[in-house]
Design goal:
about 0% strand, rod-shaped, 8 helices, mainly alpha, 2 domains
Length: about 140
């Protein structure tokens, strides 16, 4: 659910982000106005404060910055676990006879032409059992 929010937010380029944090010109402006009257210095300080506030808003809008390191590590671990489980399911599916013809087309074409109908029935039963097992695994991962 959070992923969809992250994906929907517009991503800023690194250059755009760096521009938001260029505060040095504002500081130089304040220093150059120190010999001017107090009002000019005050305006320059206000401009710097506005720039800092805008920079903080940009920083807080970056996806994931609201999470602690521990939360990020837990999220990463859960994503890695899901990926591992899905890889295992894919490996199981590649063992199903009806899918092998799509993964190992040359080998299966030769072996399937020489197999008997009895072997086909056994293969179909094994495929059905494997698919049922994979379906149960899928339900557990969701």
């Amino acid at each position: 659910m959070m992923n969809s929010k992250i994906e929907q937010e517009p991503q800023q380029s690194v250059e755009d982000l760096l521009k938001e944090f260029q505060l040095f010109p504002f500081i130089l402006d304040i220093i150059s106005r120190l010999k001017d009257d107090e009002l000019e210095v005050s305006r320059a300080v206000n401009a710097l404060n506005e720039k800092v506030a805008k920079s903080l808003r940009v920083l807080n809008s970056i996806p994931g910055t609201n999470r602690t390191l521990e939360e990020q590590e837990l999220l990463l671990k859960s994503y890695k676990d899901k990926l591992r489980k899905k890889k295992e399911l894919i490996a199981k599916l590649t063992e199903v006879e009806m899918f092998k013809k799509y993964t190992d087309s040359d080998e299966n074409e030769q072996s399937s032409s020489s197999s008997s109908s009895n072997n086909n029935n056994i293969d179909q039963q094994q495929d059905t059992n494997m698919i049922n097992s994979v379906n149960q695994d899928i339900e557990m991962t969701e």
